[in-house]
Design a protein that fits this description.
The chain has about 425 residues and is of the alpha+beta class. About 25% of the residues lie in helices and about 35% in strands. The chain is built from 7 helices and 26 strands. The model has no long low-confidence stretch (mean pLDDT about 85).
């Protein structure tokens, strides 16, 4: 029996040795040797870039925030200098922070940022007890490709592609390089966009932006899609190629004069053009606080005399009845936890501290065949019951606003209006100004 066992062990060892020899014949080295070679190759390549690496980084598994630019300079002692375009609590854009990294074997070749770095871990640290993954960023990456010209990795958890290319500037240019992305991103900010192919507007119901993604709406929720991108020195690069009307593009250059992003890919001829909403749609569709008189306490000035007098009378009424004052008045949509529709809101205070908000619901209806008229239709008081104490005071103000509807809207800035003047169509002497 012992001889049989000894024979089995000897045969197993012989087979193992044969497998190792066969592996070496096929691959030229054992698996352990190949792994060590790959680890050393990545370490050496990371350190070899004299000015560091430009990194294209996408947090969130669905890439719903888009991509962000970093600069990484790896050192032989295991330290890494990291700077990013997103400012944090303690660091401004472009300021480098030193932490540590390691290259290890873990289901492949893995790059791990194994000590905390506020600039980089901003995307992966928890935001509180109910948001344990923060912006769902990766800090460990699995190697896919490694050459002196480019390194491609994927996030260990989220699977997003991380692309590194050698940075061609020195350390003195880091801040300038990283600040350019936000500045360029802001230049092509618009409320909506038109996508054109060969000069013809594509059949997309609406294109908007959120963070660094384009939101393509096709009329049916199941057809909608998110198109994430990262800003480049000259425009944007989509995370993956976009196909519209049979044409495909991934790289776009920003033409500031024409206010559009133009595809660089040969034969694609796709443009993403900035567009501007009519003023009545800007007002009726946005979830914003539009303040009377710039949100200042009484007296009201940016309005006609009858409305200003009605507000002063209302304030005197609640001051006498409730020992309160109107702190500010604002109009908007979804501005209260107790009411999500459109409303005119009176924030009242006791000794300058906000106490109650009296909410009066309106429908903001765009007047057909106009881009600058809106009808304000009063539908009744809303809220938590506090409005009952103010009905006598505020009803005359509400009635004035209602009875002078519809209004024609004008603004000093038609592209990104921060103020809107409402002038009654029936009575041009009745007006008020709302300010963001």
């Amino acid at each position: 029996m012992k001889n049989k066992l000894l024979l089995i062990v000897c045969l197993a060892l012989a087979m193992l040795q044969a497998c190792v020899k066969d592996e070496e014949k096929v691959f030229g080295a054992s698996a352990a040797e190949r792994m060590n070679e790959a680890l050393n190759n990545l370490r050496n390549t990371l350190v070899a870039a004299p000015n560091g690496w430009a990194a294209e980084y996408y947090p969130e598994g669905d890439r719903s925030m888009g991509g962000y630019n970093f600069l990484w300079k790896f050192n032989e002692d295991g330290t890494v200098q990291i700077a990013g375009e997103v400012a944090t609590t303690n660091y401004v854009t472009g300021e480098a922070v030193i932490s540590h990294y390691e290259v290890i074997a873990n289901r492949g070749v893995l790059l791990s940022f194994n000590t905390y770095n506020e600039v980089f871990h901003f995307f992966s640290e928890p935001r509180g007890a109910t948001d344990v993954d923060g912006y769902a960023g990766d800090h460990e990456f699995v190697l896919r490709e490694c050459t002196p010209e480019r390194i491609v990795m994927t996030g260990k958890k989220r699977g997003n592609i991380l692309l590194l290319t050698p940075y061609d500037g020195d350390a003195s240019t880091w801040e300038t390089y990283l600040k350019q992305f936000k500045a360029l991103d802001e230049k092509f900010t618009a409320p909506v966009y038109l996508v054109k192919v060969d000069g013809t507007v594509a059949a997309i119901e609406r294109v908007t932006r959120k963070d660094r993604t384009f939101q393509f709406e096709y009329g049916k929720a199941e057809d909608n899609k998110i198109v994430p991108y990262i800003t480049t020195p000259t425009g944007i690069k989509l995370y993956e190629p976009l196909t519209v009307n049979g044409k495909t593009a991934q790289y776009f250059t920003f033409n500031e004069l024409e206010e559009e992003l133009v595809s660089e890919d040969p034969g694609s001829n796709i443009t993403i053009k900035m567009a501007w909403l009519p003023l009545n749609e800007v007002f009726a569709s946005t979830v914003k606080q539009w303040f009377f008189d710039s949100g200042q306490p009484l007296p009201q000035s940016d309005m006609c005399a009858p409305l200003a007098e009605a507000i002063r009378t209302a304030n005197a009424h609640i001051e006498k009845k409730e020992n309160e004052n109107i702190l500010f008045i604002y109009i908007g949509k979804g501005l209260s936890n107790s009411y999500t529709g459109h409303s005119v809101n009176f924030a009242c205070s006791a000794n300058g501290i906000k106490y109650y908000t009296a909410i009066y619901a309106f429908k903001f209806i765009n007047v057909a065949d106009t881009g600058d008229q809106v009808h304000l239709e009063y539908t009744g008081p809303q809220g938590n019951g506090a409005y009952i104490n103010y009905l006598d005071a505020f009803t005359p103000v509400i009635n004035l606003i209602k009875d002078k509807s519809p209004y024609r809207l004008t603004s000093k800035n038609l592209k990104n209006p921060a103020e809107l003047t409402f002038t009654s169509v029936a009575d041009p002497n009745f007006y008020f100004v709302l300010t963001l």
